[in-house]
Amino acid sequence: MGRGAGRVLLIAMALLLALHTRPASALTKSYLVMASQRPASWSDLLTQITSQFRILYTFEPINGIGLQIDTVFVPDLKLLTGILVIEDKLRQVSTTHSWGFLGLKGSDGETANEWNNVPNSGEGVIIANVDTGVSPISPSFRDDGSLPALSKSRWRGECEASPGCNIKLIGARLFNEGIKAMNKENGGVNGQQLNETDLNSPWDYVGHGTHTLSTAGGGFVANVGAFGHGTGTAKGGSPRAHVASYKACFVPGCSDLDILMAILTAVADGVQVLSLSLGAPATDYVSDMMAIGTAFAVTQEVVVVAAAGNSGPVAGSVTNVAPWMLTVGASTMDRIFPADVVTGAKTITGQSLSNSTLPANEPIAMISGENANSAGQSVANSVLCLPGSLDPAKVAGKIVVCKGARGRAAKGQVVKQAGGVGMVLCNDAASGASIITDPHIIPTAHCSYSQCQELFNYLQSTGSPMGYIKTRDAEVGVKPSPVMAAFSSRGPNTITPQILKPDITAPGVGVIAAVSQEVSPTGLVSDGRRVPYSVMTGTSMACPHVAGIAGLLRARYPKWGPPMIYSAIMTTATTEANDNTRIRDETGSAATPFSYGSGHVDPVRALDPGLVYDTTTHDYANFICSLRPTDTQGLLPVSLPLPLSILWTLLARVFHDTNSNPFECSHGANHPEDLNYPSISVACLPHSGSVVTVKRRVMNVGGGAASYTASIMQPAGVTVTVNPSTLVFDGENAEEEKHFTVTLQVHNAEEAAGYVFGSMEWSDGNHRVRSPIVATTKCV
């Protein structure tokens, strides 16, 4: 710390001493505390405010600590010069066929040495997740003797699991100080008490972490299915990668402080790809600990892939929106697990993984939850089959029709406890056609809203409704696929609308992968089943698909930085389904880049992208500069408010100009839409006359000389032009870059009043390098 900064801190401490005679409030919370310059001693600094504090973590790479302190002293803490304080928050955790659907399969679709001729299948790459832990005994993480051991210089991590790790599963670590502090502060977390076994072990007692890690990098395991369905060979996207687990999530959720420490530890350990199936509502980057931690990770060349969230189809619900993360939405694949509901001559088809134990083709009495409410319970509760709402006298021996897509497996438990023998789970209008395959504890069929209208008409048309449930094996080749899942969170990006989010979509519905046998497949205590593989659904499942593909790219192009890998994945994505039509949306509305980003991931094309957008640390630092408020106080153009300054320093720390001077914000204008990003999003377009021009550059990685020509799909009401429209690479420089501009001008303000969508594509006749374009005259 410089002498001037030290004097300022001492003065601030002296001024604060007079404030600390007041008693503590006995309300403690946890915070991330960051400093623009690292104090000589955090403890000495904090003691000037109060002796009642606890340092949970020390975050050396970002000049920070995790701190538990009485809330009465937080205002004093914030008064210290160069100090940023962010409250700890809770986040939630947000396959046998999916890889074949994505085109990664050999001639027989199964064998390890025919993984679509992908070099090494991710061998040598370290993929990790921050999640609910791992089951080290899963067959997906066994050491089959084929992988070489990593040197100590390549892998610096640890294994805290017992039984231990191996050459495949090289690390398993636990981070729980934040969640323990939350538990102590609130007498529980999210209304739940922590399970001591879960809290103190790197093992997975939820199932989520094992599922996501095996999807990203699990090895080949033959004859795997879920409850007898979808049998095939389980494997991750990089089946020969090494994998590591960083447990920071538990049954009630994940502390931001634990997540941050896990991310920084993974970077220090040597992880190359980090999969984060975690989320919380988007906030400013300077108050988002995941954004802060992943910003540091990217400066250390770690690829970061994150889930978009499961709050769709609400507009602006997408999370993990920082441009240094690759954000993944969820879509269907061409496989379903059908379950038929037969009533007389009418059959409607839903989905389920529960094997029907009802007599085959023998109708059973049916009743709607609406007509099955118990005494003292409202119809509103019994319609949803909530606990205690069903009357056993009305339900016993019958198939119950329940509404609502939340708590799906729990509804089956309620029906079973009331004596019901089966359940039809009907979507409400908001859930539409979004059907989720679950391993229900009783014979069940989950059906769409439209199909259930026919079923409810039947129930109301007769005094003695009868029917039965018939399950079938998985069907493959379903068209159209993919379809955007209704639950997948949507854009626009509410923090910086100039950065399109999500970036990409991948399979996230009905994904089969490894799970922990420490927990039931439904997560219900009453469910005594234990299985090694099961099905899960969510953007949590889509995220590791892309992380696995990132591992393939990292193995093929070891010198590529994270943004080049992001670009290869984004610009080669497709917006077409397998019936040669545009990707649809389960909601019935048109699917747009706000749902699928650049499109559906295509790993085969991503391995040969032709051109890539390389976003440097310099670019990211200038992006942070662009977020500064208008200078109304006559300050220097390089000035930033403290929170942005700290984040900017984090990003710019590793960047120096040609004179070895620290990076500074440029004195000219910085615009967030000028970040060299593989997609283009422009808000606040002038209604007429004026134009907005954004800058981009691309690098030729296709090898040799090449000439690329641009083509534009024009957004409604907006004219887009590219200059130059042809890029010629001589092939003499392996990292040759070309600059170009994209100009947008409104020609019909009425059409462009809302968000409009188009695209730009560079092609050399062999490669197609596509970027979505989003524009609006709205100033958001």
Features of this protein?
seven-stranded mixed sheet, Peptidase_S8/S53_dom, Glucose Oxidase, domain 1, alpha/beta, Rossmann fold, 780 residues, Alpha-Beta Plaits
Task: Report what the structure shows.
It is a single chain. With 780 residues, the chain is of the alpha/beta class. The protein is 22% helix and 25% strand. The strands form ten sheets. Strands 7-10-6-13-15-16-27 form a seven-stranded parallel sheet, with helices on both faces. A hairpin with a 2-residue loop joins strand 8 (221-226) and strand 9 (229-234). Helix 7 runs parallel beside helix 14, helix 8 (256-269) packs parallel to helix 9 and helix 18 (617-626) packs antiparallel against helix 19.
Uncertain runs: 1-22, 106-115, 629-638, 654-660
How far from one another are the termini? Answer: 40 Å
Number of domains: 5
- The mean pLDDT is 87
* Percentage of residues assigned to helices: 10-25%
Lateral strand order in the biggest sheet = 7-10-6-13-15-16-27
Number of strands: 39
> What is the overall silhouette?
globular
